[in-house]
Every structure is written in structure tokens, then in C-alpha cells.
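B., you asked whether I could sanity-check this one before it goes into the benchmark set. Here's the sequence:
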Amino acid sequence: MLLAIDVGNTQTAVGVYEGRDLLHEWRVSTERKATVDELAARHDQLLRLRGASLAEIDDVVVGSVVPALTAAYQDLAISYLEHDALVLEPGIRTGISLKIDNPRELGADRLANAVSAYARYHSACVVVDFGTATTFDAISVDGEYLGGVIAPGIETSLEALSSRAARLLKVDLVPPARVIGKSTVECMQSGLIYGTVAQVDGIVSRMVEELGPPVEIVATGGLAELVVPLSEHQIAHLPQLTLEGLQRVHELNVHPVEAT
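And here's what the prediction gave me:
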């Protein structure tokens, strides 16, 4: 079994794969100061709740935007599984080429998303990921990662508003019934959600124009389900896109014949 770990700034998503089949999945808060033993205990406990254990894991693949935890998960693989983890970073096989100024700047989650989207469609793609930041990534019809856009995420925007404006409190992230809010809460919800929808529609339209249609548009991330139904674009919601990308990268590097 393969343990795929996507370490984000806010949350860490984990999937257990048997081949390309996702057997188990969970999310935990990203704790930057967690020790190797704490990480091992946490994931072993969650595996046991699902009828498995860390001892049954054969391989580990890690995509991380938190360097300290990248190293911690590498140590976990060595200490508890007695082999190295595969880390998604420049220099390993991904199936796509990076046509950007500095490939080392590209976050592992964005690269995994691009790998997964292109492997699914073999077409030009735009990937929107709703996380701490809302990111937009462009992949050409030839499998080239061309670049993208980074904007504040919905929750990040909410935290900025509530922390800097004395009379604006945190609100539930649910779409109001109308764009024109009748209360402060509705006004904030409208700005956060419909504002993000407008941002997504505008940026995606411009990216599709630059790429040249046809373009597949996909979305992932915890808040994608809020935005996708409200968009003017036809967007495929793929919650496991990043984990699928990590599984694909592992397959390409460890079992290249099976990946073809």
C-alpha cells in the first residue's frame, strides 16, 4: 500500500492507495512543529480506525509546501518503514515539463494537481485549487506547465477582514440568497463567495483565451464545492486531485511501465 501525503499550509491530506484505488483518506491540521514520532502516532491511529496500520504501508510519497514537515515525513519513512520516501520536487519524473522561470518556486501541490489533470484529460487544462491561497494553474495541450495565478484564499480573506475591521466579525461561509446583502453578515458572505466566483470566472476566462480552446477546467481544495456550482464555467470538481497526482508521480518513478 502507498501512503500519499499532501502537506499544505493549513491542512494535510492523506490517502492510502492500492495501485490506483484510493482505499482510505483523511485530513488533519498541519502542525509545523510536530515531531516524527507524533506524526507516526497520529497517522497510525487514523489507519487503525480504518482497519489498517502504519506497518502495512509499503511506500510513501510526499508533496509538501512546509520544508520542516518534508524532512519530518522523510524521517518517518526511514524510522518506521525502513525505506526512503519519494518527495515531489524538481528532478523527479512527473510526465509534464515545467515552462516557468524557476521550477523550484512551484509548490508541490500545484505540480501534483497539474500532473493529475493532464494524466486525466491529455488536453489543455486550467486547475483551480481553493486552499490557503486560491491558485490557478495552466497546462498546455502538449503537457507543459505554463504558469498560473496566486490570489488570497476565501478563508484567508475572511481572517484579514475580521482581524483588521473592528466591526466585521467572522461569518459562516455559505452563499447568501442574493448578491445584495441586507445585513453585515450577508454583505460579507456575498463579498467573500460571489467575489471569489467572479474572480474565478474572470481569471479562468482570460487563461482559456491565452491557452486557446478547448480547455478542461477542474477544481479542487476544501472550498471548491462552494464556488463550482455558482460559476459560469463548466468546472469538474475533483476533491482527490492532489492525492491522485502524488500517486501518479510515485507510479511514474517506481513503476514506470505500469504508468504508461
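One thing to flag: Residues 184-211 form the longest helix (28 residues). Otherwise nothing jumped out at me.
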